[in-house]
Every structure is written in structure tokens, then in C-alpha cells.
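Recap from last week: sequence in, structure out.
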Amino acid sequence: MKETKLLWVLVLGFSLMGCSKSGSPGNVAKPVEPAAGVTVSNSPAPEPTVPPPSGAAPRALKTEMRNVMFHLTDRSAAHLETLSGELWPTGKNEVVVFDDKTSFEVRVTNGTVSVTPDSLAQIMNDYVFARNDAPLKDIAITIDKDQLIIKGKLHNKGDIPFTTAGTVSTTPDGRLRVHTDKVSALHVPMKGMMALFGIELANVVNTSKIDGIDTDKNDLLLDLGTLLPPPHIRGKPSGVRIDKDAIVVIFGDGGKSLPPPTEKGNYMTFEGGPVRFGKLFMREADLTILDMDPGDPLDWNQDHYKDQLVAGYSKIKPNFGLVAFVKDYSKLGLSRGARATKVPAG
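Predicted C-alpha cells:
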């Protein structure tokens, strides 16, 4: 009997070794035409990588966001309850290009960001393990008191069902630690057997092949800024908690010390550095995006932002800044998955 249980320990361990970062498909946005109401000329659109003045270093866009559902995929979103930070060009990009969500990342300095278990499971199924030959399938995530319950199938081992349960905390370097309390495969408890034979998670999971995941004995260490789809949301969490229906990540003091909102309702503001979207190029950005329906969060999808702009309208401020009133992505009727996006209960 001990030999049989040890076999399942090894089956689970070596199955997890099959998780490869090369198997995670990119969720890259396709270039889109410029939005109605924001075209500034009839000339051909310049290349999206037009740099700042010669010799100038890339500059960040200061951003403030309030009550925004920020899509990571069409069917999943993070709720940016309050967020203060910057958008920075990535790689060789010298400006933020809204038409290419891999051209920038969001660096958070203060605020509160939450994600529901359903949204996190959608990311796992639609992004991390989306390939037909992915080792894990049918991921489902729930919350039981202060624990995350993760269920799924070992697809490359005949769809063997597995379950894990654990608590979540932060590490000094800003990653999330998932402390594994229980592990089972084929409904057989395995953590006790692993301890009996001196086996730790770090011995059987080759995390060098999984971007954004590492191990510490029997704990998983998650770098959400690397693990989740672009545009990556990066920052050093100061805390994390599990609510009844959401995982809540705190940056700074959770937004308590931020100044009062600069706009009414739900919004995103971008100021300072250069930004390009469609045919419009702002060398010194002064852009505000407001929710046409402030009764619920601003539902923003970077892949479909043009459609949201077209469904709304825009105004020019006295200083030639731009204010765009947009329609929620979930109300455009473009995707069944969008209607499944829910806001965590406060």
C-alpha cells in the first residue's frame, strides 16, 4: 500500500514538471483602427513605435484609476478598486502604445486590487493551460473560509483528478506565498506520504520551466506580474487577504493615503509621458477615460478599447487635454465571456 501511494506522489510530481512557460500562449492584442472622434488628421497612421525626441529616454505615464474592471482576458478581469502608479514602456518600446498591450506595463505604488476565484480559474484555463497538449485542464478555484481550493485534471496522465488546499500570504520580496496544507490525487491524500518519504514540493516540481512560479519547500511562490497575461500589473504587495469571494492584494496602504478622486464616478487618468492610440499621438499626455454608466465599475478591455471609444463620445478640454466617455466592454455584446465577469462583493 505504501508503494502504491508513493507511486501517486511521483505521478503528481512529474506531471507538474510538464508545466512549461513555452506552452503559455500570448494573449496579444491585434492592432485596431483609430477610434471615432479622436482622429486628428487624414494622413496615414505613423508607426506605433515612433520615439520621443532624439536622445530622450522612455518616460512613464502617471496613472490614477478608480473602480475599474481591468480585463486580463476577454473572460477574466482584475478589479482595480483604487490604483496609483505609472505606465512604463517595456522592452525596446519607447512609448506606451494602447494598440499593443505588450508595449507597456502597469507599475502600482498604492491601491487595492482584487480578483475572483472564477476569474483566476479562467486565466489558468484560457491562458496558462490553453494548449491542447497542456498538462493541466479544467481548473476550478473556490474559497473555503481562509483557504484557496484548487481542483483540476492531470490531462497528460489520463485526466487524473487532483485537489490542493492552502493559505495565502506575501513574501518580503513582494511575491505571493501559497502554503499548501493538503494535496490529493484520485482522492488519495498525498502530503502525509510526501513527508513520510522526505519528499518536498521543491524536489518534484521543476519551477525553472514555469515563468512566475517558484517553490520553497512545500509552498508555491507566485510573481503575479510575470504569471498573468499582459499588460502586466507589477508592484510589491504589502499584504493579501482572502475575502468571501475574492483574493485581495494590497499595495502601499491600500489607497487610504491617496488624495481625493480627481473625477466623479469611475475613471482612469494618464498624464505626463507620451502615448499613442489609433492615429492620435500625445507627446505630453493629458487623457481621462470616464465611465458612461457610473452605476457599476468601468469595464475596460485593452483588446477592444476602440469599440468602447466608438460607442461613446469625447471632449477637448481648454488645455487641449482629451476626455473620453466610454461604454463598458460587457455592454457591447461582443463576447459571451464578458457577461461572466463579476465584481467581488465589498
